[in-house]
Amino acid sequence: MPPSQGTNRKLYSFVAATHVETTHKALIRSRVNQTPETIKKLLKSKVNPTEMRVGITSLKLLRDGRVMIEANSKKDIEILGNKIEETCGAELEVNIQKRRNPRLVLLSIPEGINLEHAEESLAKQNPELDIKKGISEQNSVTQLSEKPEI
Length: 150
Known about the structure:
Elements: H1 12-17, E1 24-30, H2 36-46, H3 49-52, E2 58-61, E3 67-71, H4 74-88, E4 92-96, E5 104-106, H5 115-125, E6 141-143
Parallel strand pairs: 5-6
Antiparallel strand pairs: 1-3, 1-4, 2-3
């Protein structure tokens, strides 16, 4: 039964089915110690995202004197970063943030389960994690045979 038009409540099925979009970020710092407001004015005057067909979700002024720009796709943020470097490279420095893979800790693995098979099934079920062959500290996957003491 859909909710009535006057309420703002969402159905559980609608909330559970939605996918959370990740945002990609670029941090812009001044090379000549300008304030974040000045950086923002400079960006708005020299860079036009609509001409480049780039979507920006937010533009935030940070306390440490930097400006953070968020976009929905990595491609958009890279295009924007390159344009800022082109037009304002002498005055501004662009740092595009890279996403990190999470650390996986596997607790209470039964002795009957083969670790290579578990690793393959994890990689198949989660292709976005980009798990490499071989469980090691380098791949950020740790195996604990017993429950850790707290």
